[in-house]
């Protein structure tokens, strides 16, 4: 296969950017076959890119008809599959990789990206890394491959490995810096606080080699929000203004979230008002901040404004808005919003939404309705929902429903001694001493140790 200059500039290639339907794709393919462009690598790569986006089976049929496809065409198709179809076609990307006799440095970045989409592909990504190490030196030390490896291990939650690989790169580019920054900023397990602080240090080091962009600042602000560092967040905001970076939707949403978590709702509102474009995520951040601080009416105002602007509320919107109603005692408003999820916006409520609904009813003392809601749920209640119901039952001294909640919690969290102690205390409050003794025996049967300082005596 060849790729002469004439094939790169052919007028037929201009049609590809205008193709929107499968029928148009077939017409262009027919033109390629008629005038001979199907024998040239570059036009074929463009056709594969288009067809894999519009109709993947058609792209595969084109590829199967190519006699001895080059590694360039393999790479093109793999990259397009990973970018367009992400985790749904990872197996296909690796199937194509297995057919390449001599992969090059352009083969691996897309495959490492695909390996990080889902935990079930992490093992394949590690095997791919071993394969890279066995190849020639240029591939092992290629900047794009190294950056892809950093991204893969970062997505797997292996921050130490990602950092070790990052430190071996002589001059990491902006994208690689951002990948590592985002990984540290998103860390919420293990040494989460240490990782957030490391994100701040990385940002400082980054400025000596490359100029941070908006993506860098989003990671920095997320770290400051996680640490509750208002000073760090203000510094990031000032840096944004001094460097003339854009207050886009991602940066604005991160700033709103940061100021809200630090209790500075006036600053969050100021950022919101200064944004030229606002999306649903931006509104969600503002509503969440108001909900946490008990400003339910204001949160509902933002929810209504979101809708009036022609934006579509998503699952998170309903979670934060119903939560705002719950924390402010706006029961009827919360019920109406919950009912609108399915009736108006065709969004099926998840267990988290039912949890908010139970909390909304329970906090207001409408425990009978909350219990009825739990019974009618189309899915099994989780521990968080039962804990919410238990809390409401205790606040309103409803021992009968508190007992129901505790028994269900024990079935989900059998190792948690605190739940047994609460159940025992409720029985004691009802003078049901036989049940107190049965609860203690149940703890022994399940080998649950009572926490020091907690008494189950009357």
From TrEMBL:
One of its GO terms (biological process) is RNA modification. Keywords: Repeat. Pfam families: E_motif, PPR. PPR repeats lie at residues 279-313. The keyword Isomerase does not apply. One of its GO terms (molecular function) is RNA binding. NCBIfam families: PPR. This is Pentatricopeptide repeat-containing protein. It comes from Brassica campestris.
């Amino acid at each position: 296969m060849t790729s002469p200059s004439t094939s790169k500039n052919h007028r037929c290639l201009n049609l590809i950017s205008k193709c929107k339907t499968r029928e148009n794709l077939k017409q262009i393919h027919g033109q390629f076959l008629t005038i001979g462009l199907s024998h040239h690598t570059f036009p074929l790569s463009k056709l594969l890119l288009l067809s894999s986006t519009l109709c993947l089976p058609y792209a595969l049929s084109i590829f199967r008809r190519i006699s001895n496809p080059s590694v360039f065409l393999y790479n093109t198709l793999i990259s397009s599959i990973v970018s367009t179809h992400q985790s749904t076609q990872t197996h296909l990307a690796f199937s194509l990789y297995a057919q390449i006799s001599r992969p090059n440095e352009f083969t691996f970045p897309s495959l490492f990206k695909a390996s990080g989409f889902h935990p079930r592909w992490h093992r394949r990504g590690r095997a791919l890394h071993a394969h890279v190490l066995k190849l020639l030196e240029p591939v092992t030390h290629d900047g794009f491959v190294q950056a892809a490896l950093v991204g893969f291990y970062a997505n797997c939650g292996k921050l130490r490995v990602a950092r070790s690989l990052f430190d071996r790169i002589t001059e990491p580019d902006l994208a690689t810096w951002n990948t590592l920054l985002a990984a540290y900023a998103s860390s919420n397990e293990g040494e989460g606080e240490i990782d957030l602080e490391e994100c701040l240090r990385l940002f400082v080091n980054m400025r000596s080699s490359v100029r941070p962009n908006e993506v860098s600042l989003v990671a920095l602000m997320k770290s400051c929000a996680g640490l509750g560092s208002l000073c760090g967040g203000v510094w990031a905001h000032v840096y944004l203004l001094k460097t003339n970076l854009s207050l886009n939707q991602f940066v604005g949403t991160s700033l709103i979230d940061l100021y809200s978590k630090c209790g500075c709702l006036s600053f969050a509102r100021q950022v919101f008002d200064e944004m030229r474009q606002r999306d649903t995520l931006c509104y969600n951040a503002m509503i969440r901040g108001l909900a946490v601080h008990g400003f339910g009416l204001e949160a509902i105002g933002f929810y209504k404004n979101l809708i009036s602007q022609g934006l579509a509320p998503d699952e998170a919107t309903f979670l934060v808005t119903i939560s705002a109603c719950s924390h402010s005692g706006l029961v009827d408003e919360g019920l109406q919003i919950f009912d609108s999820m399915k009736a108006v916006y065709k969004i099926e409520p998840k267990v988290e939404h039912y949890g908010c609904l139970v909390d909304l009813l329970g906090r207001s003392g409408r425990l009978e309705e909350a219990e009825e809601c739990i019974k009618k749920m189309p899915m099994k209640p989780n521990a968080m929902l039962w804990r919410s119901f238990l809390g409401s039952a205790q606040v309103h001294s409803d021992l009968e429903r508190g007992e129901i909640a505790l028994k269900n919690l024990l079935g989900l969290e059998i190792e948690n001694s605190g739940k047994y102690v609460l159940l025992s205390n409720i029985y004691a409050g009802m003078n049901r001493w036989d049940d107190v003794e049965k609860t203690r025996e149940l703890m022994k049967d399940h080998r649950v140790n009572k926490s020091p300082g907690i008494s189950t005596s009357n």
